[in-house]
C-alpha cells in the first residue's frame, strides 16, 4: 500500500482486538488476558491504523470472548468508531452462539462474521450451533486454521494418519493437486459459506488454495473425512 496507495481501494482490511499479551518475565506476576473495554478497543484501533498507515478498517473483530465483556459498552464503542469513520463493520471471533447473540441483541446492524476454527481436527463448531446460527442469519463465518496450523501434514497420531489417508484418497478421486486442496474443499462445502483464511504466505500454496474453490466434494466424500476424524461412522 505504501508503494501503490490505490491498492487500498481493492482490498478489505480485517483486524482483531481484545487480547493483551503479557510475555512472562521473572518477577512480573501479570498474565496475558482479554480486554474488550472501550479504552482498549479504541487504543487498539488507533494502533492498527497507525501501524498499517491507513485511514480506516473495513472490519474489526473482537478476537476472543471476554468474560468481563459488557455488551452495552462494546456496542457504544462500535458506534463511536463508526461515527468517527475509523471502522465500517464489526464482527467477533471464537464466540459461542450465546455470546454472539448477547452482543447482537444490543446492535441494530448485523455482526458481519464470527471467525472460528474449522478443520478435520476441530469440528466442535459443527455441533455447538455456531454454523447453524450464522446460516440462519445469512452471515458467513471466517474459517481459521483450515490446515490445523500445519498439524494436517506433520502430526503423529492415529487420527492424523486417518485424516491424511482419506484426504489423499479423495484428492486422487477428484484430481486435486494436494491434500490441502481437499481440506479447503471440505470446509467450503459447508452451507454457511465460510470465507477461508490462509495461514501460508507462500505464493504456490496460496495459488493451490484459490484453485481448490473449483473442487466440489460429494456428500459421501465430505462424510468420509468426518468419519476419518471421528474414527467411527454415522449413527
Ligand atoms: N481467530 C483466531 O483466534 C485465530 C487463531 C489462529 C489463526 N487465525 C487466523 O487464521 C489464519 C490462518 O491460520 P493458520 O496459520 O493456523 O492456518 P493454516 O493454513 O491452518 O496453517 C498454516 C501453516 O500450515 C503450513 N502449511 C501449509 N501448507 C503446507 C504444506 N503443504 N506442507 C506443510 N506445511 C504446510 C504453513 O507453513 P508455511 O508457512 O511454510 O506455508 C503454516 O505454518 C491466521 O493467519 C490468522 O489470521 C485466527
What does this structure look like?
With 235 residues, this protein is α/β, with parallel strands linked by helices. It has helices at 38-52, 71-83, 97-105, 124-127, 130-137, 151-154, 158-174, 179-188, 203-211, 219-230; strands at residues 14-17, 19-20, 33-34, 57-62, 87-93, 114-117, 142-144, 195-196. It has a domain at 1-112: TIM Barrel. The protein is built from 10 helices and 8 strands. The strands form 2 sheets. It has a 6-stranded parallel sheet with strand order 1-4-5-6-7-8, covered by helices on one side. It has a two-stranded antiparallel ribbon with strand order 2-3. Helix 7 (158-174) crosses helix 8 (179-188) and helix 7 (158-174) packs antiparallel against helix 10 (219-230). The longest helix has 17 residues, at 158-174. It is globular and about 50 Å long. The mean pLDDT is 97.
Brief overview:
By secondary structure, the protein is α/β, with parallel strands linked by helices.
Reconstruct the topology from this structure:
Layout: E1 14-17, E2 19-20, E3 33-34, H1 38-52, E4 57-62, H2 71-83, E5 87-93, H3 97-105, E6 114-117, H4 124-127, H5 130-137, E7 142-144, H6 151-154, H7 158-174, H8 179-188, E8 195-196, H9 203-211, H10 219-230
Parallel strand pairs: 1-4, 4-5, 5-6, 6-7, 7-8
Antiparallel strand pairs: 2-3
Helix pairs in contact: 7-8, 7-10
Bound molecules: NADP nicotinamide-adenine-dinucleotide phosphate.
CATH class of the domain at 1-112 reads Alpha Beta
Roughly what fraction of the amino acids lie in strands?
Answer: 5-15%
* Main sheet properties: 6 strands, parallel
Q: What is the name of the CATH architecture of the domain at 1-112?
A: Alpha-Beta Barrel
- The largest beta-sheet arranges its strands as 1-4-5-6-7-8
Return the CATH topology of the domain at 1-112.
TIM Barrel
Mean pLDDT reading: 97
What separation lies between the terminal Cα atoms?
Answer: 52 Å
Low-confidence stretches are: none
Quaternary organisation: single chain
